[in-house]
Each structure stands twice: as structure tokens, then as C-alpha cells.
């Protein structure tokens, strides 16, 4: 029956015939025919091969039969496969229809079960309530005791019985956890006080940890209990769904906060002027605190707390924060800025504090951030230099005011045991500057260099101040000028105390230049007084009275010697410089008088008298200055040279004398020579022009024979055009 049914279900296959729906078959036949025709034409092209035509025909027939048999076999196999596939598709269609019917039946059953489940929902709710009531009935005795246990736990916390309070708290929390599952996570009102109770306990632990140093000395058991509570809580397994309580972190933070507040609380910040005392107190307190941590606190805490290292980091960071707050406040005074720099850079890490050998390696803070950043150090150095500069300016001004006040006295300047004019002002000035430079070496080289630069700047400004008052103000004007010259010499000779080791050359040059300028100015003021005293005498020189008598120059020498009587109170080499300038000034006044054209010799006799007078005056002036102590007379020889010019009998030889004068004194000009020729009174125009021409065509002065300017400082009246060279400056 089954086989019959199977055969009935198999579809009936119909033979396939080529037709219009198989264009490939027709094209294949055409290609095959063409190929066969091509092959036959190639085989039977020659007549001798036609004899074998029967063999070729039988062979092709066999081949054709074989191909047809193979094609039939392939087509038959293909048809059988198609037949089997169609049969399987039919069976699958039947199975799908049966499955669809079965699913429809299952859907109906599920709908019936859902309706039945809805009718059981009230029963399920009643069952859950029954289980909750059953659990509550079992836990009811323990739940009734919860308020009393909470109150007792709070008392334990208040009395600092931390371990007992923690045990009681954990029992309450375990009871709360036991009620969660049977109650489906329902929170009972009786447990609402557990959160505040736990917070009260951890706050009490924090308070105890914040006073760890004091408790380690007075009640170490209490500190141990507080730390143990934090550690037990940190090791507890937290139920799923609950956030962990990081009591260990809060305990460590309380240790740090308490330590910082103890030593660096904001109300304890030092006020102005109290910084040194505050730092000295820290210098004692911080090492003592580290010793307490190592000896007392560390045994009360677990090893992984690393108490000594924690103490060192906390004290360091607290001190750093406090110092930064201090620098953000009002600007420090110079003493406070210096004290803070020295303390932070040298004392804090030194053997007196954190670098003490009594502290272990855990107390090393050298690898932490420095107390002061480079910007902080720069700020403090700038503050110190600025404040010290103001103080130095005030101190130097006071010293200068005292010196100026001395100028108004009715007595001469004070003298030292050797008789030289003396004042303590140079020593005071150098002491002020040197002490400020020296003390900064205790801080840093950079600060010392900055203060050194400031000191040189202030010294230069001090030396530029005009405190040399006029003669009408000071009764003893010249002696005080001489005393000021000694001051300048003392400063110049003592500048080495301001020199720093390793300082580049040339740093002291500006101050040295100012000292030289001050020396020249003092000499100029002294010479102005001398010039004012000698001016009336030189106004009548030369004259015929001058030719006949030495009284005029005697008076000049007398006044000059009287003016220089106190020069011996000036120290070398300043006294030599001063005498040299006096000699130069007197000679310049003499030359200036000669060039004014007040006298013209009327004959050879007067020229001889003038030459003799120049020789006697030169000798007298040389004797004067050598007697005053001048070691080298430099300007008086010009009078001997002029004497030769006047002494010459033959005017035609004047060119030689002028050339010699030019060799000795290169700054002599045509105007000067012309004025001297006018003094002779016997020089013709041609002789004058020849003498003046020798200045241009004669040999030039040797550079090695150069002297200080002399003739160039002597003005002469403008000569007549007839006495000028065509190319001369007066032409």
C-alpha cells in the first residue's frame, strides 16, 4: 500500500523536445555541422583518401552511437533526480501543513493557561504575604529590641567604646540583611536609624584619628580601637547592591587633616614681623612631631599605613600650602623675606629639621615638591632686594645728611692720628653695603648677585648726589672739599670689599668711573676757589711793572702757597693729583694773561727783560710746587719754551723756535704763536707768515710726546687779518 501510495504521489515526467525554447541546441548543431564539414573537407581533399571513406563512415557511426548512448544516460539520470526532488518537495509541503495545524492547537492551549494563571494571582499575593508574616513572626522578638540596641550603640559611641559600638552596629545591620530576602527588599521603619548611627560611629573614629598624636601619648588604646574599626570595616564583604563604606580612607584623611590643622591652621598664620618666631617654633615642633609619629603613632596603626611617611608628606604639604597662602597675602618685609628664603632653602632640609639623622628614610621629603617654587623664590628675592634698596637709600641719605651738617660747622673737618682729614662716612657706606651683600651669601648665589648689583647701583646714585655746597654756605669750604677728596680716595681703595668671587670683570667699572668723576669734580671746585683768588693778580700781567719787578708773581706764589697749606692733610695719590691740577691752573692763568696782548715790547731791551722775567717766574713757580710736595712739575716748562721764543735776537730764525715749540706742545695754534709774536713787537709780516707756515710744513709732533691739553684751553683775541695765513683759521 505504501509503495503504491508512493508511486501515486510521484509526478509524471514528460519527455523534453527541442523547440523554439532551446535556441542553444540549434546553435550547437550548426556549430557541429560546420566543424564536421571542415574536417571532412580537410580529410578528403586528396583523391587517394576517398578509398578509405567507408572506414571513416563506420568509425563516425560508432562514435555517434556512443555519444548518443552517453547523452541518453545523462539525461535519464537528470530526469530521475528531478523526479526525486519533486517528490521530496511534495512531502515537505505536507509536513508544513501538519506543523501549522499543531501550532494552532498549542496557541489555543496557551491562551487557556494564561486565563487560568490570572485567576491564581490573588492566591500568589496571599502566599507572599503569608511568607512575610511568617518571617516577621520569627524575627519579631529581635526586631522589638532594635530601638534599644540602637540607643545602646549610640551610648557606646558617645563613650568612645568603638569596638563594642561597631560589633553592635554590625549585629543590627546583619538583622537588617536577614529581613531583606523574606520581605522582598522591603525596608522596615525600625532600621531607619542605622544610617545615622553608622555615620556617627565613623565621625567619632575620624575625631579620634584627627587627634592621633595626642591620643598616642595619652590613650593609645583608644587610637588602636578607632583604627581597628576602620580596618575591620575595610575588610568586610559588602552584600551585592550596597555601596562600600570606605572608612579606611576617611580615617587616613582624618589623620592628615588633624595634623595639618594642628600645625598649619589658618588662624595660626604669622602676622607681619612674626614670621621668624613662627618658623623657629616649627623648627622645634615638626621634628618633635615626626619623632612622636615614629615612636608612638606608628605602633598603633597597621604597617601598610606607613605612618612616618604619611606624617612627613602631610607636614610637608601643609607647610607648603601655608607658605603659599602667606605669599599670596600682603607683601613681606625685607627681614621676613630673607628669613623665609634662608629657612626654606637651608634650615628645613638641613640636619636641624627634616634632614636629621635621627629620622629614618621614610621621613625623607627631599623627593617631594619643594616648599617654594622658582616663581616663589623669584618673588621673595625681588621683595627682599626692593625693600633693602629702600632701606639702603635711607641709610645712605642719613649718612649724607650728617656729612652735610658737618659742613656748616664753624670748625675744620676732623682729622685722624696722622693729621689727615677724616670722616667715618666712607666706612659707614661700605659697611652698610658690604653687610647686605655678605648676609645674602647665607641664602643663595643668585640673591647675593642681585643685592651686589643693587649695592653698586645705590653707591653710584649716592656718589652722584650734589652735597658739595658753595663757599658762601660752608665756613671752611676748601678744607671740607679736601676731606671729600679723602673720602673719595678711601672709597676707591676699599672697593675690593664689594668684589664677589667669580664676578665677571667690568662689573665694578661704572662705580669706579663715577668715583673718578667725583674726584675730578672735587678738584675742579677747589681750583675754582683758587682761580677766583688769583684772577685779580693775573689781570695786570703782563705789564711794564711786571717787567721791572717780581712782586706780582711773589704775590701769586704767596697766595697759592697759602691756599695749598692744608693740602698735606690729603692722602696720596689724591694730593699729587690736586697739586698737579693747581700747577696746571696757575700756568694756564699765566698763559691766558700773556695771550691777551696787554704788552708789546718796544725794543730788544724789553724783550730781554720779558725773557728774563719768564725764566725767573718759571723757576719761582717750579720751586713753589716742588716745595708744596709735587713730585713731577709738568706745565711750568712751557714758560721756559716761551722764554726762548722771546730771547731770540734774529727774527728770521723764529720758524725754528716755533717748530720746537710745536714739538713740545702739539696743541699750540697759529693764534697762540701770533699773540706771542705780537708780544715781541719786532716781527714783520713776512717773518710772521714764515713762522706761522712752519706750523703746517714742519715735522709733526711724535705721538709718544703727547701731553695733556694746555694751549687749547687758553683763549686769545682774534688777530688782525694781516697777520693770518691765507689758509689759517683766522683767515
From TrEMBL:
Residues 1-11 have a biased composition (Basic and acidic residues). The keyword Coiled coil applies. Signal peptide: none annotated. Residues 89-116 form a coiled coil. Pfam families: Sec6 (PF06046). Residues 1-24 are annotated as: Disordered. The keyword Cell inner membrane does not apply. Keywords: Coiled coil. Belongs to the SEC6 family. PANTHER family: EXOCYST COMPLEX COMPONENT 3-LIKE PROTEIN, EXOCYST COMPLEX COMPONENT SEC6-RELATED. This is Exocyst complex component 3-like protein isoform X2. It comes from Erinaceus europaeus. The gene is EXOC3L1.
